[in-house]
UniProtKB/TrEMBL annotation:
Species of the source: Phainopepla nitens
Protein name in UniProt: NEPRO protein
Domain of life: Eukaryota
One of the GO biological process terms: positive regulation of Notch signaling pathway
A GO CC term attached to the entry: nucleus
Pfam families: NEPRO_N (PF14780)
Protein's gene: Nepro
Domain Nucleolus and neural progenitor protein-like N-terminal: 1-115
Length: 212
């Protein structure tokens, strides 16, 4: 998960899109001119390639989030690393749902379709290819190899079913009988009293050299 996030950040997709937006003709431009400056083929190919890579990375990120969430819940049910896995499961589910709720992947696929159309028109006007040895797919769905909506529903069903069926909070923190609770409180107070009594003895023991 962390590796996917770092790669998404390092590819600077947002900055590349902002640069593209700056050179796109504005809607409120004067209609007196019949010609407009449009982004060249090298810029369109660069942005389109980054959008394709971003879609692949986000798909991988969602898959990793789902698998890691299920694994953290499994460890919680086994009472292993409770605090760590509680925090991890919350962060992973949050990240997954934020990406799905904001339709990040769907937005990027729609953007690629628009870029593909513009790239085709620009290349017909003046061919200046920049990316060598790669053919831009006409259908991004075939390139990704999965149906985005069905894959999201499948992952969501897995996460919700696992969370509902395991009820790991009840397994971790079962209802404690009143008698057992009283005994636990008494033992805790006895431990505290003994620790206070032994405090002076422990402070007098030399446990090693002083570290500056």
């Amino acid at each position: 998960v962390e590796q996917c996030l770092k790669r998404l950040w390092k590819m600077n997709l947002v900055g590349c899109l902002e640069t593209l937006v700056e050179v796109i003709p504005k809607k409120n431009a004067s209609k007196a001119h019949t010609e407009y400056l449009v982004p060249g083929q090298p810029m369109l190919e660069t942005v389109a390639l980054k959008v394709l890579g971003g879609c692949k990375l986000i798909l991988r990120l969602l898959d990793c989030c789902c698998k890691a969430f299920l694994l953290s819940v499994k460890h919680l049910c086994s009472r292993e690393f409770i605090l760590l896995n509680t925090v991890a499961s919350g962060l992973l589910s949050r990240l997954w749902f934020v990406i799905q709720y904001r339709c990040v992947l769907q937005t990027l696929t729609s953007l690629y379709d628009a870029l593909s159309t513009v790239l085709h028109l620009v290349s017909e006007t003046q061919q200046t290819p920049y990316i060598q040895g790669f053919t831009f797919p006409s259908d991004i769905g075939n390139f990704l190899g999965v149906n985005i909506s069905s894959e999201a529903k499948k992952q969501k069903a897995q996460m919700l079913t696992t969370r509902k069926s395991t009820s790991w909070m009840k397994k971790l923190f079962p209802a404690m009988p009143e008698a057992v609770s009283k005994v636990g409180k008494m033992r805790k107070s006895e431990t505290c009293i003994s620790a206070v009594k032994n405090h002076s003895i422990l402070c007098a023991v030399d446990i090693g050299e002083t570290v500056v």
